[in-house]
Amino acid sequence: MNHIWTPWRMKYIQGDAAERACAFCLAAEREDGQENLVFHRGENLFMILNRYPYTSGHMMCVPFLHVSKLDDLTSEARCELMELVAKAVRVLSDVYKPEGFNVGMNLGSVAGAGIADHLHMHIVPRWGGDTSFISILSGTRVVPESLEVTYQKVKEAWERVD
């Protein structure tokens, strides 16, 4: 039997009740930086790297408001969501030069939402032949870059790219 060690997940697994609260609400309350992974705050939404990415650069656009339905956002927030997603695609194109993107939401736990109660949109860069989007071998993904390095690249590009 092969073992894959992920000791950094123990903090999440054994966290206290506050740590098991909505991860997005907690991220919205904390200071931006590599530890929090929030790299931009808009009026109604913020941008955050996915702590368990499918690929390097996997980010999410998250409303500050804890809602699970698109209709619960104001029209201004829905417009801002799409503007931030469009900028995220430009930033990731600049930093990683992907050949395509997966952009979308999993609305509800049956649709695959890991955090179903707090709406969020994924922006995932893709390359021809990549195997990291879907785990194909023993539930394993290969992400070739640390979150700290990804954070620095994305944060710098976010401030530079229009």
From TrEMBL:
<dbReference type="InterPro" id="IPR011146">
    <property type="entry name" value="HIT-like"/>
</dbReference>
<dbReference type="InterPro" id="IPR036265">
    <property type="entry name" value="HIT-like_sf"/>
</dbReference>
<dbReference type="InterPro" id="IPR052908">
    <property type="entry name" value="AP-4-A_phosphorylase"/>
</dbReference>
<protein>
    <submittedName>
        <fullName>AP-4-A phosphorylase</fullName>
        <ecNumber>2.7.7.53</ecNumber>
    </submittedName>
</protein>
<dbReference type="GO" id="GO:0003877">
    <property type="term" value="F:ATP:ADP adenylyltransferase activity"/>
</dbReference>
<dbReference type="InterPro" id="IPR039383">
    <property type="entry name" value="FHIT"/>
</dbReference>
<keyword id="KW-0547">Nucleotide-binding</keyword>
<keyword id="KW-0548">Nucleotidyltransferase</keyword>
<feature type="binding site">
    <location>
        <position position="50"/>
    </location>
    <ligand>
        <name>substrate</name>
    </ligand>
</feature>
<dbReference type="Pfam" id="PF01230">
    <property type="entry name" value="HIT"/>
</dbReference>
<feature type="active site" description="Tele-AMP-histidine intermediate">
    <location>
        <position position="120"/>
    </location>
</feature>
<feature type="short sequence motif" description="Histidine triad motif">
    <location>
        <begin position="118"/>
        <end position="122"/>
    </location>
</feature>
<feature type="domain" description="HIT">
    <location>
        <begin position="23"/>
        <end position="133"/>
    </location>
</feature>
<feature type="binding site">
    <location>
        <position position="122"/>
    </location>
    <ligand>
        <name>substrate</name>
    </ligand>
</feature>
<dbReference type="GO" id="GO:0000166">
    <property type="term" value="F:nucleotide binding"/>
</dbReference>
<keyword id="KW-0808">Transferase</keyword>
